[in-house]
Amino acid sequence: MASRPRTLYEKIWDAHVVERRDDGTCLIFIDRHLVHEVTSPQAFEGLRVAGRAVRRPELTLAVPDHNLPTTARADSFGLPLPIADAQSAQQLAALERNVAEFGIRYFHANALEQGIVHVVGPEQGFSLPGTTIVCGDSHTSAHGGVGALAFGIGTSEVEHVLATQTLLLTPSHTMEVRVEGALGPGVTPKDLILHIIGRIGTAGGTGHVIEFRGPVFQAMSVEARLTVCNMSIEGGARAGLVAPDETTFAYLKGRPLAPRGEEWEQAVAYWRTLHTDEGAAFDRSVVIDAATIEPTVTWGTSPEDTAPIGGTVPDPASFADPSKQEAARKSLDYMGLTPGQRLSEVEVQNIFIGSCTNSRIEDLRAAAAVLKGRHKAAGVKWAIVVPGSGLVKAQAEAEGLDRIFTEAGLEWREPGCSACLGMNPDKVPSGERCASTSNRNFVGRQGPGSRTHLVSPAMAAAAAVTGRLTDVRELMD
Amino acid sequence: MDPVRVVEGRAIPFGRKNVDTDLIIPARWLKTISREGLGAGAFETVRAEPGNLFDQPEFAGAPILIAGDNFGCGSSREHAAWALLDTGIRAVIAPSFSDIFAGNAFKNGILTVALPQDAVDRLMAVAASDPISIDLEHQTVTTPFQDRFTFTIDPFRRHCLLEGLDEVGLTLARGDAIAAYEQRLSVQQPWVARGTGSGLAA
């Protein structure tokens, strides 16, 4: 009997239903759980207080990332240096105590495998196609880049997953974002996802899981797909997905936690079934022509406040919605920008290349390609490059990228979340601007009073060279 | 969790759209290992503005917050819900909520009441001077001026809130069903069931 055509999301959902309640709520099995130091202490404490165990410790992987310093973390003998901030040190100590007590696999702060949870998961082959993946971090949507249903959860849900390996959920609506054509030179996956968020708005995907479809995503590397899916949450979506394909399988093969041998063949055979069926219906569909997309930057304090680099700061009065007009006025006031100002004339004092959005090897290569043989502008006071993991760092160093960055006057740091959210010492000073490859330009996100312009790694490198937001295509051969 | 049936009292007519969780509680407050005491950092950047609503005496301890579209967008930090709770807020009324925030609020017994923008506008006007009442059982929001708005809520969440149920406890009672699923998984996709159980370097 032929079954009803289903979307990729529906296939993964259906495969994880443990039980369906009469009210429509489903008990969903969680295959993979990533844990970091900031959103987990209260969850472990909850288990302890209730006298509950971790049901499946081998399905959880823990790694500290959010508030580790990115300056040297070990002395010349390789011994760990203490963390100066007492509260950060306390959170790290709590994580180490919890993983030991509950028997959870852990990459310590100085392990080669340490890094940002969303870089580590795919890199280790922990994140696999068709699995359900959660983490107490909204950018868990990144793992959709390997064809997993992955989404951020709160600390109470972290506790629920630890205790039961399940979550109680209602199905999401489905949304297709289809991009036709091909991206132009100098236009990167980051520009594409910023453009998409500008188009649908930060609430555009609320209640939905987005599947990214079409030739642009099919042609992308897994790293690029991770960048796109990472920012699905900035479009309000619960998760983002790209169907797994030969590119995905080639990326995962041989990774430490990926299946091997005969199991690899079985896994790939199953993964090949994970695509949206011909004739399956999405609740919403958005179609975009890739050729219309330029290198994109943000001008405001919401990720939907995007504009092509060749454009100008918008006039708040140009928005139809009165509440958006008011929001835009507040944003421009905070950002210190005036309507009509050319974006390419906006000067920046800080550069941040990193975060779970853009700290993988391809991102670093793209930034280094622009910086090679060049130097940061005099007006750029602080410029750091923070690799996504120890393995990314080692790979970049093997390729000589670290020397390109340091010769250009940028600092080469240890892996972590860093200036994306300024929980560690890496912050943008009040009133200063940062061209940042991270994912959020919220008020105060990179430090109190900080002004963030979201850009691609290549665009951040271009801004470092000129000291202002710059169309990277002007620096390309 | 204590059962929730009615939330009534003054409502802070904040009204802002796209209130992100960084605005509700900035990252520097997340370095705690406790759920307590986060009210001190709630809306820190807004409260730095002179004459802000949150610090006006008439809204001290107000149990309801009214906001614009897409409340709670951004970071998944449950600290946002804990911070609201610590300031005495037990319900948020807005045209829409981010999915993750709505889940976090529910887990902490905070009602997220989604109403159309015109109803929210009317409640904003009432809130300037008068109290508002939210009745979860009948799914209504009422004012002293005979306004009556009905809202919908996920039936499972409503049931848990009204009964004050512990969700982890509920799920643990389904342990046999979970075990049956795990058994199938270990046969059909042993590489998924194994997790970090083997193969990891270092």
Mean pLDDT across residues of chain B: 95
Strand content of chain A: 15-25%
Estimated radius of gyration of chain B: 20 Å
**What's the CATH C level of the largest domain in chain A?**
Alpha Beta
Structural category of chain B: alpha/beta
**Contiguous helical run count of chain A:** 15
CATH topology of the largest domain in chain A: Aconitase, domain 3
Please state how the strands of the largest beta sheet of chain A are arranged side by side: 5-4-3-6-7
Number of helices of chain B: 9
Average pLDDT score of chain A: 97
CATH uppermost class of chain B: Alpha Beta
Tell me what the CATH architecture of the largest domain in chain A is: 2-Layer Sandwich
CATH fold-level label of chain B: Aconitase, domain 4
- Count of individual beta strands of chain B: 8
Please report the total strand number of chain A as a whole number: 19
Taken together, the total number of domains of chain A comes to 3
Unreliable runs of chain B: none
CATH superfamily of the largest domain in chain A: Aconitase, domain 3
Characterize the largest beta sheet of chain B: strand count, sense, and whether it forms a barrel.
4 strands, antiparallel
**DSSP helix fraction of chain B:** 25-40%
